[in-house]
Amino acid sequence: MKNNIIYTAIIVLSTLLFSACADDFLEYDKYGDQSTGNFWKTESDVQLAINGLYDVFSNGNITGRGFMWYICASDDMVVGRDKTQSVNMKNFIDDGSNGYTAQNWPEMYKLIAKANAVLVNVPEMEISQDLKNQALGEAYFFRAWAYMWLAPRYGDSRAGLPIAEQGLKIEEMDVARTDNVSNTYLYLIEDFKKAADLLPFFDAYEDADFGRPHKTACWAYIAKAYLYNAEYDKSSYPKVVEFADKVIATNKHALEDNYEDVFKIENNWGKEYIWSFVSNTEVGAITPSVYLENKGWGKYNGWGYWHATEELYQAFEETDPRREATILKFGDEFQFFGETMKYWSTNNRTGMQFRKFMDPYKNADCINTTVNPDGDNPTTTLNMPLIRYAEVLLFKAEALIADGKNGDEPLNEVRQRAGLGKITGAVMNDLKHERRVELAGEWADRHYDLVRWHDAEAVYAQPLHGRIHENQSDPESSYTVQEVWPARNFDPVKHHVWPIPPQEIEKSKLLKQNAGY
Amino acid sequence: MNKLLLLICFLFIGKAYAQVVITGKVVDAQTNEPLIGASIHVKGSTNGTITNVEGVYRIESSADSGVIVASFLGYSSQENSFAGSATINVALESDLVNLGDVLVIGYGQVKEKDLSTAVSPLKNIQEIKSRATGVSSMLQGNIAGVNVVNNGGDPDKEPSIIIRGLGSPGDKPLWVVDGVPGAPFNSQEVESITVLKDAASAAIYGANVGSGGVIIVTTKQAAEGKVSIEANYTRGIQQAWRTPEALNAPQFNDIKNLAADNAGTPRNDAYNASVYPFGNTTRTNWVDEIFRTGSVERFSVIMSGGSDKVKALAAFETTNNQGILLNTQQKTLGGRVNLDFKLSDHVKVSQWVRAKRSQGNSALTAEGYTGAIISAIYMPPSASVYNEDGTFGGVVTEENLDKAGSYGDIVNPVATLMRKDIYNPTTQLHSTTKLTIDFLKDFSFNSQYTISSNQNQTQEFIPSRPEPGKSVLENSKIASTYEEINWLWENTIAYQNQIGKHNINLLGGYSTNYKNNRGFGLQVYNFDSEDPLLRHLNKGQNWSKSQPYENRSEEAFTSLFGRATYVYGGRYFITGSVRKDATSNLYTDNNSGVFPAVSGAWKLSSEPFFNIEKVSLVKLRASWGQIGNVSTVPRYSHQATITTGRGGVLGKDAQRITGGWQETVPDLSLTWETSEQLNIGLDMDFFDHKLSFVGDYFIKTTKDLIQQLQPTPTAGVDVAPYSNVGEVENKGFELALNYNNGDAQFKYNIGANLSMVNSEVKEFGGIELYSNDVTVRGVLSPVYSAIGEPWYSYYLIESDGIFQSDAEAANHVNKDGKRIQPDAVAGDLKFIDKNDDGIINDEDREFMGSSIPTLHYGFNFNCSYKGFDLAMLWQGTGQSKVFNAFKSTTLTASEQGYNMSSDILDAWSPSNTGSDIPRISATDPNKNFQTNSDWFLEDGSYLRLKNLTIGYTLPNNLMNKIKLNGTKLRLYVTGENLLTFTNYSGMDPEVGNHGVDVGNYPVARVMSFGVTLNY
């Protein structure tokens, strides 16, 4: 009798147990996040996906330093701190593995993957045509924009970039490099063209959408891409002019009246704006603070990484107001945390700091209003221009001059704003000079200009100079110009491109390092 | 569910209808001591009882005559027939005259000498428990094949335990406490610890084990009889045994000026004593400022007692460990109540409630920019810990702000340590209810239900860092909480029978496990005041900078398992087990796996023909088994989710926007990782079991290894998906020797163990090697894993000393006469161009070993003489390397105004050519300190006097004199890490962080005193 009860109990127990292991006991849906199964259904899904494209702007390794280290290799600046990895990059003896530039590649391919996801999923969705156009337009723009960052730095006539086509499965994702970077430029130009067709003009955007790509930004980038491609294919020059003209012809952009106003926070969206990193006191570009005096005279954690050279100072014409707007030298007055200061620095290598991006620090209450209180992520509310109208004019001028035509008009428009006299029959050297002084310290990339003009070897064979002051704490102190950076060995074949981060090469069976690295 | 169990219990409370009563006493045949808890049953019936504290039993039989069987763990059972009521006294013969102990294994127990698998007990547990360290460190050096590596000396960090080599990089052993995986326990309660090393023994625990092995802990259980009390108090101090030294202020300036001169760069005014005399005065020895004499403290009480029907135990323990770096500590509070109810002779119910709370404060040290110890080197010696107004000092004072830029981006390490304001208690609460029903005489049914809650609350205030150096001008507070509810229901049926010479043991079971996690957190910025009284969340002004988050997740496992053991004549042993596991963490189509195991042993010495006098045991063992593992797979990894981020900024007024993207591409074919292990062992005892030897050889293969395979460089995948990508082999051997001898007065035991394990990654997703991303300031990345190498190996460029002249550097050319190091001059490191292509780059790297030692050994000596006892443990490792990354920033003058180690005074110079430290220079074109070279690699092996304990138990007559009859009082002193012999030049060779030492929290030397009272 008792045994029967036990048996019964065991059977009951077992039944209960096994019912607990019904299939649904082992299946759970994830809380809190949508999954691809229920994503790409609504308009808000699409909005979320395109907003995800901008996430790259919060990565200080992209918007603050990263590619900027490559620009630091130019003759406009020196590395402001003893920091071997930075020094070695400037001296062209870095292997690409250092943490400062290792994220350039993977971050851009992540952006490409995000854009590809939009391009794969959105066309089939039943949503408003306006949103569909906007979404596809932004996706094409960002995909092209990502390639545009990588192409001049890692690709040349010996090898282009691997193209990650949309819709590839993860196992098909290992892609070899194309045989010439020209292919990459032509590929990304097609994307920019599609984007230009789909996107509105900047002035059609609501205030909240300022910062989204627009038609003239696409055309400006197409002009830039053709200009870079012209190094390999001269037939690109007329196309540079064509797309620069498209921007100009809209009459939607113009130069600011005063050069120094270009870099004021209130002109973030001024008439010269074409495309910038949008930033606030929490996320965005940290570049202004990377330029700022190391430790900001004890008031703010400036990083003091890039100091302007005497060579850059001397490159300006004597009467060019852009010089003092660009460079802060000993004794110059400026506003800093509500005080009028005269510039001096005990640690500045050249005795000169870039002044362009100091607007955010001028007010006493700048912390939290124009400057991020977090000195480890020192963003500001100054949007960093990536392409501005002046550069579009210079694209056009360069293409015309390099193509043997007259580029005086666009060139002089830039000079006129600076109050300088017109040049007639401008030659490449005039253009090179103008491009240098107008865009110094900006993302226009002086280093790559020297490389594509085939000037780098000769320029870098000269040492760089700075002003060594008698008393580094005294703004009025006298100085002597001394060599602060020795001459460098630039091999135009090898150093035409930078090394792809070796960490990326390791992940692939097909990706090949640039020759010589 | 608990209700159901109780209901069933009540159903079975029955009473046997008795006619005949047999009573008697069970004693040890040799000592005549009563045996408490020996089991008595009437053969052929379900009638059974156990003896009480006097060894007396009383049993009723429904049959007039029959046979009663008396048995007790560790003794041979005895049968006596009866006819009518009678008194039958039984004297049981011990079958463990040094025949070893009974070990608790998965869902059962077995005599150590009858093992067919690789299972090792922790010996001398009572002595070891005197030690001031945690249970994990107690295992260090004590068991062959169980390799404990301290992750530095941070009081809030646990050591890593690697059993038989790392199969999957996430391997951790499973702790099973009184049959409950992961239950909390206190060190003083520990009764025994057994380690299941091979797959065949661990397989029964299945899915939770992986290739990590199982550590079974048995705690003191409630015992019948008068109330007994055991109390222990230990207190001691701890100190660093070696600390680094920084340059003083004049030395710092001299080196910086020399560095500028050597590099041909202008000198900096800040380093000129006449321009800036303030910077030439030493004010602080930062290393002395951050270290302190720490302390350890532990108090515990265990009480137990009860009757035949109800037994109870209560235990409590509190510990307080104050680390050797300022403000680092860990405190724990734990307790347990255990009640056993005997409802009838066949039905028992037990209830355990366990709780443990821990709260700690660790220090960030393994970080090359802001780590507390390396910052103590970087910080200018002219700076002060505090400003005159009591605030923390920066690299310069208020009056000297113009010199701030001449020093590095450095944090004041005292501020870093002291500012930490964290409250983060973790509380574990476990309830286990167990029902045991014996039925049909040889069957036993067990149902055990555990429900646990694991909670954490974190509140951390992060003050601003206004002082010049690496300033951050905002403050914030983090608040977060989570709870995991976990229930596990295990049901097993066991059958045991002895038929003639055949002993059969069967076990079948089913278990279900469900976990539910919930949590949320937020970070609030911008507090007007940092007054400790005003650090409340509601005082924060900015609630929008960081969005709150919420987590909620579920997972479940089901397992069906069985085991059969057959023993013939005490000579032939064979066991087979099989287990089917299924989990919600894998995609439905492939969420289950079947894992078999088999083991066998032959006790040659029990064969009738075996007759070698001095050899008391010879046993051969072999086992093979598989274990499934999904512990590395996160929940929902098979679902492609859309993650969101707020990195983008848009709009005229630059507002943050929320964007979403598919973070990873899930691998739906992901299935169980399998750890397969073959073990062959030999056990031999000599001289009447006084000397014993255990030897094992094993091959552990981890197949279908689950790892995040790095996506290709064009995939653009944010987070690498989990896939079955590889295979890892660990093989090696273990030897253990033990000798114990002595008489009642003087007893001693000498033990030695040694293990070697060779680890090799056999396959990894078709790629040759990948970086483990253990970086030093984003510059050095020395740790890689690759085919043919162990996990976490060093992949480095070989260096070959220092160029003694510029000419020597110029002559370092490849086969084509090309200069290999065009920027090298005298005093720079010479690197070997492995592929002879004339360039030093990653292609010249080669594998140079790993931080995980391949050789571990330990010796222990224990003895007791009258009331004195002594225990000594030496422990060591061999063939392990440490990457001394501390040198990369503290022995170079090319790092932006950082102070340096005083060792740099011995750097190479034309007048000091014997040095192995490269020349002093403000630039480093040769990349002496930026190259992943073996110049940083050092021998990390060591030999330590891990522990020495001396105790004295007061004699009984003294106790009687002071009216403490029946009380035992033992006093002891104990020391940890008393002596260390190593060639490693850093603070301590046990650095954690995969062997990359950035000035990691060092292991401390501990001295303590304790007293144990038994009543």
Main features:
heterodimer; A: 517 residues; mainly alpha; Serine Threonine Protein Phosphatase 5, Tetratricopeptide repeat; two-stranded antiparallel sheet; two-stranded antiparallel ribbon; 19 helices; globular; B: 1015 residues; mainly beta; Immunoglobulin-like; 22-stranded antiparallel β-barrel; five-stranded mixed beta sheet; 11 helices; 51 strands; 47% strand; elongated; disordered N terminus
Give average pLDDT of chain B, whole number.
89
Question: What structural class do you assign from the helix and strand content of chain B?
Answer: mainly beta
Task: Give the CATH architecture of the domain at 2-92 in chain B.
Answer: Sandwich
The CATH topology of the domain at 43-273 and 389-436 and 490-506 in chain A corresponds to Serine Threonine Protein Phosphatase 5, Tetratricopeptide repeat
Q: What portion of the residues of chain A fall into strands of 2 or more residues?
A: 5-15%
Output the strand order for the largest sheet of chain A: 2-4
| Tally of strands of chain A | 11
Low-confidence stretches of chain A: none
Topology-level CATH name of the domain at 2-92 in chain B: Immunoglobulin-like
Low-confidence stretches of chain B: 1-18
CATH C-level class of the domain at 43-273 and 389-436 and 490-506 in chain A is: Mainly Alpha
Structural class category of chain A: mainly alpha
Q: Any idea what the shape of chain B is? A: elongated
